[in-house]
Specification:
Largest sheet: 3 strands, antiparallel
Shape: elongated
Number of strands: 3
Radius of gyration: 14 Å
Structural class: mainly beta
Length: 44
């Protein structure tokens, strides 16, 4: 099996909860580009 071994430009992490979703995006050197709390509301 072949794997992608090059460094990515961005890395993303998502922490999903019942009432909120936390999103964090880092660039290739580990600096935070986006760190946001997004409310999760079900659509009617």
């Amino acid at each position: 099996m072949k794997f992608y071994t090059k460094q990515h430009l961005f890395y993303c992490g998502i922490d999903l909860h019942a009432d909120a979703m936390y999103v964090c995006v880092l660039n290739s050197v580990g600096e935070v580009v986006v760190h946001k709390n997004i409310p999760t509301k079900p659509k009617a």
